[in-house]
Amino acid sequence: MTRAESDKLKRMVKMNAHMGIRMGELYPKVESIEIHCELTHRSFCGAPHEKRTWTVTPQDEVYFMIDCLNNECTSAGFDLRDIVSSAIQSHQTEVSGEMRCEGREAPDHPEQSCSGVLKYTIKVLYKQ
Length: 128
Ligand SMILES: [Zn+2]
Known about the structure:
This protein is an alpha+beta fold and 128 residues long. It has helices at residues 3-17, 23-26, 81-89, and strands at 30-41, 49-56, 65-66, 78-79, 94-100, 116-126. β1 and β2 (49-56) form a beta hairpin.
């Protein structure tokens, strides 16, 4: 796979992950979803590290894809949709865990798995 083919595939997966629906329509009982993420990617040039935190409110679009820190990664990123939806279905207020990237290290390194890791904590605030 070439870099261009890989990028095209990533764009398509991301487009599909956009459901075009607002959080308040999908989860009417939820006031806000707070997402804390810590991304790492080990490579020969070090271990870049990044923290992100954001809040999803009822008028925001439902989109829970997070880019892998590895620029050349073949995966479109980490998809937290299922984790968020199962947390809300079971009425949990906080879930946390870790996901390994399912991509390859680079389009021209198909034999090597990406070393990207995402640690997440998702806090759900329900309407009273
Ligand atoms: Zn990756």
